[in-house]
Design goal:
It is built from 13 helices and 16 strands. By secondary structure, it is of the alpha/beta class.
Length: 383
């Protein structure tokens, strides 16, 4: 009987060890695969199939949902993912306005939130709520600072502005308004439009009337085409600066000759082919592109899909140490995962060189920003 009892204990211990070694980690994802943010959310949705199915010997399950670019739906999705699906980390959403209410949910449930949106307000200023939020898209202030240096170097003294009337556009305007005066550049306008607008004629006429040396457009995806096309249709021939939000094939196809020459500060992914063969940035992009093409019948990914890939890369980097603290599916594991993501250092991503700190949950510096130009219908590293 003693021998039988011992064998039973050994078997039970082995079963527990096996269970711990192959514990399932669940990652919940909500993206704007429909609605105004579809140009961002669709490539993110398609990236899910390319994500690693196993990390550090642990099975990874992904649960992806579409929030339709609606904040209320995004909140519903995240609450379902947490309470019903019992996920260990949440990724999303694609747009800043859709993501903002998720900060409260993440803090309330004490679960890491890897946002795919752009505005610095998602991770700044750091507080008890934002300590649960991490962002792979470079902050507005970093990109705005790099592009403003290029604008100043080009001799621009008067800069017209038009941007989307949401957190993304206003975040950029706030940064430009802060930086421009220190560089001797005057912002001549503050025109806004909705992503769903079919015309910006009135706003563009006001921008042109201010007689700017150049125009800055703060928008993302295909909605960023409208102001530049409208400027060209009204015979504005000056320089046009955009943001890294334009990096889609749809932007290039829809904009055609009207978006030629647009300059912006963007990520390594966009110009990976123009980087040296041994660049760690290029290697990170090649790994993502290969996985995406295999999962999507040879189709090419874009920058927005890379946001999701990079978010999972940061989570993957944190999992081994978090597993030493607690088992997946527990509040302790969520907390440990948050702590380890915050400790990630010198991780080359499609979006930049990531080093998180307790005060900085974006983790990039100017080494992560590249000056890029639309040239010959492609995004090229500006010379």
């Amino acid at each position: 009987m003693k021998r039988t009892g011992l064998l039973a204990c050994v078997a039970f211990a082995a079963m527990c060890a096996s269970s711990a070694a192959f514990a399932e980690i669940k990652i919940g994802i909500t993206v704007s695969a429909s609605g105004p943010g579809a140009a961002l959310g669709q490539p993110q949705l398609k990236t899910i199939a390319a994500l690693p199915k196993e990390i550090n010997g642990e099975k990874i399950t992904y649960i992806g949902l579409d929030d339709g670019s609606e904040p209320t739906k995004a909140v519903q999705n995240v609450r379902k993912l947490i309470t019903e699906d019992k996920v260990d980390v949440v990724v999303g959403s694609s747009l800043t306005p859709v993501t903002l209410p998720l900060i409260d949910v993440a803090a309330e449930q004490k679960i890491p939130l890897m946002t795919l949106a752009a505005a610095a307000a998602l991770v700044q200023p750091m507080d008890d709520k934002r300590k649960w939020v991490f962002k792979v898209v470079p902050n507005d202030d970093l990109m705005a600072g790099v592009i403003m240096k290029a604008i100043q170097k080009a001799g621009v003294k008067k800069l017209g502005y038009i941007g989307v009337s949401d957190g993304y556009g206003e975040g950029y305007y706030k940064e430009l308004a802060r930086i421009a005066p220190t560089m001797g550049v005057e912002l001549t306008t503050h025109e806004v439009y909705a992503r769903s607008d079919a015309s910006v004629a009135g706003q563009v006429l006001k921008v042109i009337a201010s007689k700017p040396d150049a125009v800055f457009i703060a928008s993302a995806g295909t909605p960023a085409v409208l102001p530049q096309k409208s400027l060209r249709e009204r015979n504005y021939t000056g320089p046009v600066y955009q943001t890294h939000g334009i990096v889609t094939e749809e932007f290039l196809k829809l904009g055609g000759k009207d978006v030629e020459g647009a300059i912006f500060a963007g990520e390594a992914f966009t110009v990976a082919d123009d980087l040296p063969a041994d660049s760690p940035f290029r290697k990170a992009t090649e790994k993502y592109v290969a996985a995406y093409k295999e999962a999507n019948g040879g189709a090419m990914p874009n920058m927005f899909g890379a946001h999701l890939w990079d978010s999972i890369a940061l989570v993957a980097n944190a999992i081994p140490a978090a597993m030493k603290v607690a088992k997946p599916g527990t509040p302790e594991f969520r907390s440990a995962l948050r702590d380890q993501i915050e400790k990630g250092k010198d991780i080359h991503l499609n979006n930049g060189l990531s080093t998180m700190t307790p005060d900085n949950h974006n983790g990039y510096d100017q080494r992560s920003a590249f000056l890029i130009k639309v040239e010959g219908g492609k995004f090229r590293l500006a010379k």
